[in-house]
Amino acid sequence: MAEHIQDHSESITTEVLIVGAGPVGLATAIELGQRGIHCLVVEQQERGGRSPRAKTANVRTLEHFRRWGIADKLREASPLPKEYKQDVIFATRLNGHVLAHFENVNYCEPCRNDLFSEHAQWIPQYAVERVLRKHIATLETVRFVFGCRLDSAEQASTHVDAVVIDLASKQQRTVRCKYLVGADGARTTIRNNVLKIPMCGDHAYDWNYTIVFRAKGLTRQITVGQAIMYWLVNADAPCICGPMDKNDLWFFMATSVDKKQSLPDDPKEVIHRSMGLDFDIEIESVEPWAVHKLIAERYHEGRIFLAGDACHLHPPTGGYGMNMGIGDAVDLGWKLAAVLRGWGGENLLASYQDERKPIHEHVINQAVENYSLLANQLIRDQLEQEGPCADRVRASLREKIVAGKKPEFYTLGVILGDGYRDSPVICYGSLTETPVLNGGIEYIPSSFPGSLAPHLWLSDGSSLYDHFGTGLTLLCTATPDATSMDRIQSLATSRNIPITVIRPDHDRLTDLYETTYTLIRPDQYIAWRGNTLGPAIERIIVKSLGF
Ligand SMILES: Cc1cc2nc3c(=O)[nH]c(=O)nc-3n(C[C@H](O)[C@H](O)[C@H](O)COP(=O)(O)OP(=O)(O)OC[C@H]3O[C@@H](n4cnc5c(N)ncnc54)[C@H](O)[C@@H]3O)c2cc1C
Question: Which residue out of 125, 181, 212, 289 has the highest number of ligand 1 atoms within 8 Å of its CB and is therefore the one to mutate?
Fold first, then answer.
C-alpha cells in the first residue's frame, strides 16, 4: 500500500527494508511479498513523470512477470498497439534513405517460441513501474512509503537500524529490520555513505541528452517505415528517436554530445534539423545524462545488500539496465526469503555476489561495445545524395551497421544464456561435463548446472515453468524410487523446504534435460542434475540452499 508514514511511533520493525522504489526496489518487494515476507519500501520522490529510460522489458523480465502472475497486466499497459512493428530502422532522416532495418528486435513481437515462456514487451519504464506498484498494493506484507528518505543505517549481528526521514513533516524514525536492500540507484546513499564501497571503472565517460516532446502528425510523415526506434545518421544532428506513448509523445536522444554544450538552446530546431521534417513540436522535457562503465567492488556487507544501478552502471545500448536489475531482485529476493523462513543458509546470501557479478561484468562490456558504434560514427560523405556512388556508400555502411548492431538487437544468448558458472550453491558435478557456451546472439538451452532451465510448451498449452514450485523443483524424466522420495520428503519436512516433484510429459524433455533428475531453484536456474538420487540427494539439496 503506498502511503506517507502515518503511525507516530518512534520506531518501525520489518523483516526487510528496501530503499528505493525504482524497478529494482519494486521487484525485490514483489519477490519477497509473494513469499509472505514483511517488507517496507521507502522512496524519497513521488516517482511520477515520463523519464524515458528503459523502453523494453526483455524476455527474461517478462518471464518473472509471468511467475508473479502479472505478464498480461504489463502487456495491457504498453501504449503501442499489438500490431505495431517491433523494428529498429537506421536511416538518414525519417523521410530519407533507409540504411539498415532490424525486424522484431529482442523478440518483442507476439509469438509462441519454445525457447521462452513470454516474448519481450516494448513499454516505457514508467509504465512498467506503475504495473509493479499496482501489484504491490495487493500484497499484504509489503508496506510502501513515498516522500521518505533513508539518511543512515547501522548494523549489528542480528539486525540493521536505519534512520528514515519523512520529507514533508521532517519527522525522523528508526526502522529496525533483519536485512536492508539498497536499490537506491546511481546516487545510492547505501553504497556511498553507509557501506562506503567504491565503484570501479569509468565515471561519466560520455554525455547525451534526451528531449521528450509531442509532435502532432509526425508519424504520418515518416516514409522509412514503422519502428520502435530510429537511428538517424546525418551530419546535422545524429540521434536515436522513437515513439514513447500515446498522443504523439516521442523521445529524441542526441548521442555523444560535448558536455559543455550538452543542452541545446533551441531543442525544437535540433529535432527539425535531425529528422528532416516540418511539424509542430511541444517540448515536455530536456535532460542531460552521463554514460558510465562502473561496477561496485562488493555487493554486500553483513545484512546490507546492493542491487540494480546502486552496484552497476553502463550505457543503455542493449537495453540491459532495468532488466538486469530485476534479475538481481529475483536472485536476492528468493534467497532472503529462504533464509528468513529457515530453509536457506548463510552461504545462500553470500552467493548473491558470486552469481550476479560475473553476469554484470559480461553485460557491462557488451553494453560498452554496443555504445562504441553510435550514429555519430556512421556519418559518411554522400550519404544523402542520389546516384550509384552514393548507393555504394550506403550499401557498405549497411554491412557495417548489420555486423556491428546485430549483437545489440538480438541478445537472447546473453539474456537467457548467461548462467552461473562459479557459484558456491550450484552442484556442478563431474568435471568431465562441459557447459554449453552462451552469451551472444544465439541461445542454446542447456541443462548444465547453473543454466536457466530449458523451456518447453506442454501439450495442454501450459509453459513448463508454470509447473515449477515456489521453492525447489525436482524435474524427473522417469518415476523416482520410493526410498529416495521418502528421503526427500522427510528432509523437506524437517527443514521446512518447499519442494515440488514433477514428471512432465513431452517427447523433447529427455533431449533438453539429458539426465533423469534435475533440481531447479525458485528462480528457474538449475542447481544440480544426475541420473540417480540415492542418499547424496540430501547433501545436494542442503548445499544448493546454502547450508
Ligand atoms: C537514457 C536511459 C535509457 C535507458 N534505457 C534502458 C533500456 O533500454 N533498458 C534497460 O533495461 N534499462 C535502461 N536504462 C537503465 C534503467 O533506467 C536503470 O537501470 C533502472 O532505472 C535502474 O533501476 P533501479 O531501481 O536500480 O534505480 P532507480 O530507477 O534509479 O531507482 C532508485 C530509486 O531510489 C530512490 N532513492 C535514492 N536514494 C534514496 C534514499 N536515500 N532514500 C529513499 N529513496 C532513495 C531514488 O529516488 C529512486 O527513485 C536506461 C537509463 C537511461 C538513463
Answer: 125
